[in-house]
Amino acid sequence: MRLVLLGPPGAGKGTQARVLGELWGIPQIASGDLLRAVVRENSELGREAASYMDRGQLVPDEFVLKLVAERLRKQDAKNGFILDGFPRNVTQAEALAAGLERAGLKLDKVVAVMLPDEEVVKRISGRRTCRNCAEMYHVIFEPPAKAGVCDKCGGELYQRDDDAEQTVRERIKVYEATTRPLLDHYARLGLLAQVDGMGRLEEVEKRILAAVDGVGRARP
Ligand code: ADP
Ligand code: ADP
Ligand code: ZN
User: Is 85 in the pocket of ligand 1 (CB under 6 A)?
Assistant: First the structure.
């Protein structure tokens, strides 16, 4: 399965990508996680990326494309992957398609998880992320067993700098202007399914599974 999850910030892409990745035995590849790992190294490139992320702006394509391409070349992505947060614009989508085509591959499906803005802000303001394994929690909707501690790895949970409300509003604007046009792009290619992101995690998971039913599974 080669799947892209689209949708506004906070729609639940990362949460669903992790669940489905485990179910199918393929990696969840989140461009945001790759970028945050670079930022943690505190290199000059990392500081430059952070300067965009802290403002809720997209990091330049060239940088993101290189990171994602490197990640996709790793062995664990050979049998499939779930991309989350990438592509974010048409340039990235075209680069992804070209890279896959060079390897004789293509995307199986693009699922857009839809969520109204007010819900986005609620979800993001309560989001907590594991510093160690990047698992997501929500202080009200998906709390960890012990406050501040990751259920999966015992890592420390923190609130991302860019999850502050003002930055979230900016990220929603960037999504509308730059990422939403990808829905039309993928609809034209016959790859798009839209699912409602409201409701419990398990309900949203069922909708995504229904949307990809019969797609790509038979292939290695
Ligand atoms: P969210 O969970 O809100 O969808 P992400 O973790 O995907 O957030 O992204 C956080 C930030 O990282 C974005 O606001 C942007 O600055 C940067 N980023 C992530 N993915 C991309 C991408 N594909 N292209 C450009 N910038 C990206
Ligand atoms: P994205 O990757 O699209 O930015 P996340 O998967 O990080 O979104 O989810 C954003 C926040 O919402 C997280 O705190 C997560 O725990 C929570 N969340 C995800 N799915 C649901 C859901 N179905 N109901 C309630 N909260 C959810
Ligand atoms: Zn963890």
Answer: yes
Is the C-alpha dihedral spanning 125, 6, 65, 104 positive or negative?
positive
Ligand 1 nearest-atom number relative to CA 8: 4
Q: Return all residues near 74 (Cβ < 8 A) that are at least 6 apart.
A: 27
What is the tens place of the pLDDT at every residue in 174-213? 999 999 999 999 999 999 999 999 999 999 999 999 999 8
What is the H or E stretch that residue 131 is in? none
Closest CA to 20 of 149, 220, 212: 212
158, containing H or E segment = strand 157-158
Assess whether pLDDT exceeds 70 at residue 216: no
The bound ligand whose nearest atom lies closest to the alpha carbon of 150 is 3
Return the structure tokens found at 34. Answer: 């790759």
* Contacts of range 212-219, beta carbons closer than 8 Å, 24 or more positions apart: 212/1, 212/3, 212/108, 212/109, 212/111, 215/1, 215/108, 215/109, 216/1, 216/2, 216/3, 216/80, 216/108, 216/109, 217/1, 219/108
Ligand nearest to the CA of 18: 2
Residue nearest to ligand 2 atom 9, measured at CA: 12
Cα 108 versus chain centre, distance? 17
| pTM greater than 0.70 (yes/no) | yes
Q: Per-residue pLDDT tens for 83-128?
A: 999 999 999 999 999 999 999 999 999 999 999 988 999 999 999 9
